[in-house]
Amino acid sequence: MPVLIHEVLPVIPVARLSADRSRGAIMLLPTGLDVIEEMTVEVRGPVTSVHLASPGKPSMELEPKKEKQGWSVAIKDIKPWRVFALLIE
């Protein structure tokens, strides 16, 4: 799987990436009843431009951190049952 969530959290990731993993989208659905204070998402692929998108809010650019086999981003203050996505370009 190209996506790894570092913490043990009730979140369902669904990844759709290009063959070279340089662009795509990763939908994240928190399925718990509590707010997630912080979550780290790691993606196996080249470091690239990453935006956090959520319905009704403007997208926000995130600063990816280089990892051994790809990159990761930290996402904070995640509300339960609110879908959001990492857009990768």
Mean pLDDT: 92
Percent range for β-strand residues: over 45%
CATH superfamily: Golgi alpha-mannosidase II
CATH class: Mainly Beta
Which second-level CATH architecture applies? Answer: Sandwich
- Following the backbone from N to C, one meets helices and strands in this order, namely EEEEEEEEE
> Regions with pLDDT < 50 over 5+ consecutive residues?
none
Question: How is this fold's topology laid out?
Answer:
Layout: E1 3-5, E2 11-17, E3 24-30, E4 36-44, E5 50-54, E6 57-62, E7 65-67, E8 70-78, E9 84-88
Antiparallel strand pairs: 1-4, 2-3, 3-9, 4-8, 5-6, 5-9, 7-8
Could you characterize the architecture of this molecule?
With 89 residues, the protein is an all-beta fold. It has a single domain, classed as Golgi alpha-mannosidase II (Immunoglobulin-like), CATH 2.60.40. The protein is 0% helix and 61% strand. The chain has no helices and nine strands. The protein has a five-stranded antiparallel sheet, with no helix packed on it. A four-stranded antiparallel sheet has the order 1-4-8-7, with no helix packed on it. The chain is globular, with a radius of gyration of 12 Å. It starts with a strand and ends with a strand. The model has no long low-confidence stretch (mean pLDDT 92).
